[in-house]
Amino acid sequence: MELLYKSTRGNQTKVTASEAILQGLAQDGGLFVPERIPRLSLSMEQMKGMSYQEIAYEVMRLFLTDFTEEELKDCIAKAYDDKFDTETIAPLAKVDDAFFLELFHGATIAFKDMALSILPHFMTTAAKKNQIRDEIVILTATSGDTGKAALAGFADVPGTKIIVFYPKDGVSPIQEKQMVTQKGDNTMVVGIHGNFDDAQSGVKAIFGDKELEVQLKESGFRFSSANSINIGRLVPQIVYYVYACVKLLENGELKPGEQMNVVVPTGNFGNILAAYYAKLAGTPIGRLVCASNDNKVLYDFFQTGEYDRNRPFILTTSPSMDILISSNLERLLYLTAGEDAAKDVELMEALTKNGKYRITENMKERLKDFCGYYATEEEAAAVIAGTYKDTGYVMDTHTAVAACAYKKYVSDTKDKTKTVIASTASPYKFTRSVMDAIDAAKYGELSDFELVDELSELSGIKVPKAIEEIRTAPVRHKTVCEVQDMKKTVLAFLGVE
């Protein structure tokens, strides 16, 4: 049965999956959501023994119904190939009483690879299906990881260009080096003087500029997005949680029908929303624990029902979560409001105008599957150090926020349900913060790349190719601009007058 997509703001006619992927953002400024959440056609038991790629097909075919079997399997085969450094794509590491779903074994050592490695293939397939001859311009804001993963995916892909904006002083040194050394004649990386929310708001403003859209159309370009606002990013993330459940069942950690909880370090809300979609599709998931760092706008939201971005923006050691406007939360609000587009518009307008909104008691009741916890900088560092000391397992700063949230959740609830923690980045991506947490006195004077070698020795894990490649790579992208000049920068790159 065909599954169509509609806008959370209700003013656009329904579109196919391929059209939604090409558009990225709906024309009315809303986000595309499926008209219904399809149910998995195979049970967890029936998927035992399947590879990551096979489970991905079973999930994606339900959401992307206008892609043929051949097209989908081709996209999956090209995305989930030998660019991952483990055969299983997403290994589950049992540490103490939790299972860390390692989503960072791709080309850029962060979980964004898992969804972004398939998006270019979705995009080019969708363009052919819809007879699109314009060049597709991927326009993306990043808090550190989306940018590099998108650049790696789209570099030199025919018929595309990609422009990534990032906060100049708001990413780790290794994240920045990964982006500014990116090869590809169709790539552009721009640092902005501002934070991630400024970059994201600037990108959304460019998407919403109708005069610019006409100007670009006349020059043979059309925008699309690689952020998780694109449904083509969100659908592949659903696979993580179906896969994790199947593998726990397969290795005897879960009994048939037994639920698992999920903890996700959360910034833009896409990854944890995908877990919720997996639950609605039939995956036996219990609680969804939303883990925040000191920018705890989501924690406060789940505690009080009020979303309030009017607060200081704090730069932390988990920069991919340094976000005060969680775009994907709009999709959850739409669901909890009973798919009431008018209510969604009301809330989003309040956020734009006043920087905050409050949901109804009825909506709050529908959020009972979720709970929020947060970790301070000191608490996250203590978890990194403590886990390494007790088990030898080294985690990155974002995963540490989730691990801390998990400990707090269990302490509060005494809930002993088996739990999967989304491990979203390699510790090599945040070496200084990780090594400082383990022993600041010993490692504090070393350079970032000296720390990489120390981490390898300490963890016994080989330095990833992604890090080796950037040690001596030349900087290719040096553009920095003010937020108000983002549009001008885009036009200059595209050569549009």
Summarize the structure in words.
The chain is an alpha/beta fold. It is built from 21 helices and 15 strands. The protein has a domain at 92-109 and 232-470: 3-Layer(aba) Sandwich (Rossmann fold). The chain has helices at residues 17-23, 52-63, 69-79, 112-116, 119-129, 145-154, 173-180, 196-207, 210-218, 231-250, 270-280, 297-304, 329-336, 341-354, 361-365, 377-391, 397-413, 431-443, 448-459, 465-470, 486-494; strands spanning 5-7, 32-34, 92-95, 98-102, 135-141, 160-167, 187-193, 221-224, 260-265, 285-292, 306-308, 356-358, 370-374, 419-423, 479-482. The protein is globular and about 60 Å long. The N and C termini lie far apart (45 Å).
End-to-end separation in angstroms reads 45 Å
Percent strand equals 15-25%
CATH architecture identity of one domain: 3-Layer(aba) Sandwich
Determine Rg (CA atoms, Å). 21 Å
Number of strands: 15
CATH class placement of one domain? Alpha Beta
Sheet with the most strands, sense and barrel status: 6 strands, mixed
Q: Pick out the low-confidence regions.
A: none
Mean pLDDT: 95
Structure summary:
It contains 21 helices and 15 strands. With 497 residues, it is α/β, with parallel strands linked by helices. It is globular.
